[in-house]
Structures are given as C-alpha cells and as structure tokens.
Design a protein that fits this description.
The longest helix is centred in the C-terminal third of the chain and has 29 residues, at 247-275. Helix content is 35%, strand content 23%. The protein has 341 residues and is an alpha/beta fold.
C-alpha cells in the first residue's frame, strides 16, 4: 500500500486512511476500511474537503473497493466523522448509524428543540447574542441526509457484517448521543471512534436528550474497559500498541486515566462552587484551576470555546443530578450554582 492507505490489522484485514480536518481543526480523523470476501466496510469517512475526498477515493481504489459491495459505519454524526459521506458513498449505500444519533439529527431540525437548547446556553451564562454562534457548532449532526442512503440503526448488541467477518455493535454513547463502536470479539479489535483517545480527554458534546450526559459517557467507559480490547483503532491521534503484547494493559490504563480525570474535574468544580457560590455555569468553568490557561476567553477559536462550554455544562449537570451542588435559576434566565445543603 502507498502512503495513502496503511494496513493496521491483519485478521480481520483493516486499513487506515487519515483524513485532514480543515473545518474544526481537530488535526485529522483516522478512518478505517475493512475488507473481506470482496466486500468493504468503511468506518467513518472524515471531514469534507477536496483533499479529504481525494485521499478517501484513492484509499478505496487501492483496497479494490467496489461501489456495489461497499457499506459504511459511522461511529457518530459529527462532521469530522461523517462530512465526506455524500462525496464518497453511492446513493442508497447501506449506512449504519446509532439510533439515538438519527433521533438527535431529526430533533435538531425542530425549531422548538433548537429554542430549548438556546435557552439552556443562556441559562449556562452564554451571552444571548452569541448563542446561535455556539449552536452553529453542533458539529453538523442535522446535516445527515437520512433519505439519501439505506440508513440502518446500529444499536448495542446488533451485528454489522463485512464478508464473513462479524462485528458486534457496542453502545458507547456520551460523547455523542448515538456514538457506537465496532468490536471483533475473536481478535479483541475495537474500532472505537472518539470513545477512548490517547491524546486528549474526549469532550461530552451538547445535544438534545438526556440531561446527565456525563453519566452516560462514564457508564460506557466502564463497558468498554471490560470488553477485553487487544487493539484500539481510535479516530484521532497515533495508534498505540499495534501488535504489542501490552496493548490491552495500555488500553485499560487509558480508560482508568479518563475515569480518574473526570473524577478530578468533578471535584474541582465542587471546590470552585464552595469557594465562590453564586457563579454562573460559564463562570464556574473559567474560575476553575483547569481553565487557568484560558486567560483570554474571547480570543480563543470558537470551536474550542464550544467544546469547553459543552463539556462544562455536562459536568455541572452531572453534579446537580447527583445532588453534589444545587442550581438556582434566576429571573434573568441565568442559572447560578451553590453548594448542596
């Protein structure tokens, strides 16, 4: 294979193509192409760009993918994972997507749902004039054209097949409402999307549905830790432990670190509220020690601000849901946080 396409797993046969992210500045998305018996399954397609389309098409040619024998699996609908789909997927192609992801995409087209999300941003302390700009970074889940494809719900316990290879669908919701991963139990291979990353702690995005989104993510982290993963193919950053004997220990160690990182952040927000009761959500985030490097908030690139806000909302909503702090809505529509009584 050329530099466009790299063989990263032999049984099943999986290739990786790295698609640059020229919109959200995540760097790039690792996309994976599984081949068996003349069939091809593409797991994530990356962000839309001319260069990305060129790379993905070149990779599909190199592995000998035939359009009539090609299907797709989207770990979730954020545009750095799904944006290229209209450019590379034939019409009526089979596309597997988490059911909750499809439902959230439909909900985001409902003006009443959007109004509710805007009100939640105001409640968090985002300036009302900026809320539309923030919500513009919902990362494109409502761009998915369900009617163009043979869209199939992929939920926990389902099976996605390519040739004679069977992948179990694992519910890894949290980062996105319908985030799903693929697990090949015989080899311990996990195509994990954004569930576990080695370079950053995945943020919990803002979407319609459950209020305690962080609890969902933490619960699913425990699920994947116990799967018996011998090889993680994650969506961002350099792959680790390919073929190495300590790959399972590295994976489980990273999950443990992510769980501990979240626990530290929860304690930090509680301590900030104890120290300065009555702050808005955004003020809690920016007053916490982990935000010390965000010294010029207004100069930070908007997508980074969006991630900080979405993640901060998830942390505070979890603290309220678990009774660790209390939310006090104000007459101005802005909520302020105080220690639990």
């Amino acid at each position: 294979m050329s530099d466009v396409c790299q063989l990263v797993h032999c049984d099943p046969e999986v290739y990786m193509v790295v698609i640059p992210d020229e919109r959200y500045r995540s760097g790039a998305t690792n996309c994976f192409i599984v081949r068996d018996g003349g069939e091809t399954l593409v797991a994530d397609v990356g962000c839309m760009s001319e260069n990305g389309e060129r790379l993905m098409r070149a990779a599909l040619r190199e592995v000998g993918a035939r359009p009539e024998a090609m299907s797709f699996f989207l770990t979730h609908l954020h545009l750095d994972h799904s944006g290229l789909l209209p450019a590379v997927a034939p019409e009526d192609a089979r596309v597997h997507v988490g059911g909750a992801e499809l439902e959230a995409a439909r909900a985001m087209r409902d003006p009443a749902v959007v109004d509710g999300l805007l009100a939640r941003l105001v409640s968090f302390g985002v300036d009302k004039e900026e809320t539309y700009e923030y919500l513009g970074f919902n990362l494109g889940i409502d761009d998915f054209d369900e009617g163009r494809y043979d869209a199939r719900r992929a939920d926990g316990g389902d099976v996605v097949r390519v040739g004679d290879v069977a992948f179990e669908v694992v519910d890894t919701a949290g980062h996105a409402p319908g985030h799903r991963s693929l697990f090949h139990r015989e080899s311990g291979l996990l195509i994990g999307g954004d569930q576990v990353l080695y370079t950053v702690s995945p943020y919990v995005s803002f979407y319609p549905g459950p209020r305690d989104r962080l609890a969902l993510y933490l619960d699913r982290l425990h699920v994947v830790r116990d799967l018996g993963v011998n090889c993680l193919l994650q969506s961002h950053g350099r792959l680790r432990g390919l073929g190495g004997g300590d790959a399972r220990a590295a994976f489980e160690g990273r999950v443990d670190w992510l769980l501990d990182h979240r626990a530290r952040r929860l304690r930090e927000y509680c301590e900030t509220i104890e120290r300065m009761p009555g702050l808005t959500g955004l003020e809690v985030v920016l007053s916490s020690p982990s935000s010390a490097k965000l010294d010029d908030w207004d100069s930070i690139f908007m997508v980074q601000r969006w991630c900080v806000v979405a993640n901060g909302m998830a942390v505070l909503e979890h603290l309220v849901a678990t009774g660790q702090v209390e939310a006090a809505p104000g007459a101005d529509g802005v909520t302020r946080y105080v220690p639990a009584r």
